[in-house]
From TrEMBL:
It holds the Pfam family DUF8121. Residues 29-188 form the DUF8121 domain. The lineage of its organism: Archaea, Methanobacteriati, Methanobacteriota, Stenosarchaea group, Halobacteria. This is DUF8121 domain-containing protein.
Length: 193
């Protein structure tokens, strides 16, 4: 076999092998997760691609003395890394934010804590919580994130959370993902407080 034929065959195999892979630097958006849960206060989003589970974002909420406690758990497929987490929290009928605080230390075993920013962006609903620079937490199930929510006096008892998780696919040919979903949780004990 001559060199040109060999190189032509090798290039053809490489093109076929990478068909369907995302372009480098472009994240694949998954925005239609399955919403499941054991109750109206304990729900999770399940994100899949090509029949494979990529990640889940879950919360197990409860009300203590008028404050809604929201411990989160974020699981993601082996080989992927969490780059950023953004949560937007609000309670209808108002789009104004409820008062939100990060209650749990979102840090790993040996690294400094990640960057956490709380804001109320113009033109968007609710309070935004952004977590970046996760260091040694990036490759683990994240179960140390907890929020405390003090409902607005006009709140009807439904708490909405828009969750966005950015995942690094873990390799040159692996897909990066942007996961978007909404959880609606019911807290009738927190209505009109």
């Amino acid at each position: 076999m001559d060199r040109r034929t060999f190189l032509g065959l090798t290039a053809s195999v490489g093109v076929v092998a990478t068909a369907g892979c995302s372009a480098p630097g472009k994240a694949r958006t998954l925005s239609d997760p399955t919403v499941d849960g054991e109750s109206s206060q304990r729900k999770y989003l399940s994100f899949t691609a090509d029949g494979e589970e990529i990640a889940t974002v879950g919360v197990d909420g409860r009300v203590d003395d008028g404050t809604i406690r929201l411990p989160f758990e974020i699981w993601h497929r082996d080989g992927t890394l969490v780059e950023a987490i953004t949560l937007r929290v609000w309670m209808p009928p108002r789009d104004a934010p409820a008062t939100v605080a990060v209650a749990s230390p979102v840090s790993g075993d040996s690294s400094p804590p990640p960057e956490v920013a709380l804001s109320v962006p113009d033109g968007e609903r609710g309070q935004r919580v952004e977590i970046t620079d996760l260091d040694d937490l990036a490759d683990e199930t994240i179960s140390t994130l907890g929020l405390l929510v003090d409902p607005h006096p006009e709140a009807e008892g439904t708490l909405s959370i828009d969750a966005t998780v950015e995942l690094d696919g873990g390799g040159v040919l692996a897909s990066d993902y942007r996961l978007d979903g909404r959880l609606n949780l019911d807290f009738p004990d927190a209505a009109g407080r």
